[in-house]
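Schema walk-through. Below, the input block comes first and the output block second. Nothing else is stored per chain. Lengths vary across the set, and this one has 415 residues.
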Amino acid sequence: MKITLKDIRDAAAAIRNNLVHSPTIHSRTLSEITGAEVILKLDNLQFTASFKERGALVKLISLSDDERRQGVIAMSAGNHAQAVAYHAKRLGIPATIVMPRFTPSIKVEHTRAFGAEVILHGDTFDKTAEFARKIMTERGLKLIHPYDDPKVIAGQGTMALEILEAHPDLEVLVVPVGGGGLISGMAIGAKGISSSIDIVGVQTARFPSMLSALRGVPGKFGTSTMAEGIAVKEPGRLTLPIVRELVDDLLVVEEDVIERAVLLLLEVEKTVVEGAGAVGLAALLRYRDRFSGRKVCLIISGGNIDLSILSSIIQRGLVRQGQLIRLCVDIRDVPGTLADVTRRIGEAEANIVQVNHQRTFTQLPLQLAEVEFVLQTRGHDHVKGVMDALRDAGYKIWLSDKEAVSPRGVNHGSP
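--- output ---
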């Protein structure tokens, strides 16, 4: 079945009053950082916090009465699961969702909260999909595929209509790519309206399935990624030829750049974005010259990120910015020395978060101790000031596992 612009417009009409019309905003700060004119399509503001509601709802409302009574099944790493569970409940359709065992807990619990039966099975999406098809056959359920379905693809493409209605002069669409449902629908919709628009897909370097398929080479995959929403090992049967025909470029980004993008979106736009939803910004950061000077729309596709992962990203970001440091100090193991060090750190206006005083597991001579401080600071210049204050007092110091800093031949104690 060939999917057309008319199919996408029909899908948009069918779901118009049942979804959030997510905002399309200009980001002045991200534009300055990346050198492109950056537009953000915030589909992480859908009720279930992802674009997946579009395709899931279009597919569900297309089912016959008999199919609705029998029930549906979906396999998903999280966002499709929540979308199917939520809208199935709204429509009175029984739903069974099979999810990989290591799906972030926030996605699992939200899916259960929408009333679906949740089955955790398989370490990867592909093993999960295989098991879901087994359950589907056994129970006679209707499969709601996360990406390889004409109705789902048409539903995802409705986002392109909204973006180009708000920004008809857009030059580039940057779209996350897993199985290819979103970028296929977006490409059909966008190219149908403006044939000159540049469609760029982005995959995590650990799961470059679409790129491998386009090149006709076996895929090489990692064991995990923070962009688990696009961690797919095989693109769709329907989506691959659409991507081959309509997508202009496909880029890959590494984990560290995705992490930086998640933090930037939180800091700059005050919006919570999961790894898969941040790969578009990661691409602008990684391939700056590819987008410089062009009007670019990034698809912020989802915001379902575990709080523990988000917390780690924030903490690691503070470390990179010099606002959280691990400072080691060698001191004489006598009363008053530790108090002297902490006093000098306080006078330098750094905040002590944690102290580890080590006498035994060290190679230092007897009567010396190693103290590790975790400090909150205002940034790299402030860190230098704290270190200078301790050096001037004669202490041997170093940051984390970096080389010791002791320019004066110090005496391991206060002067």
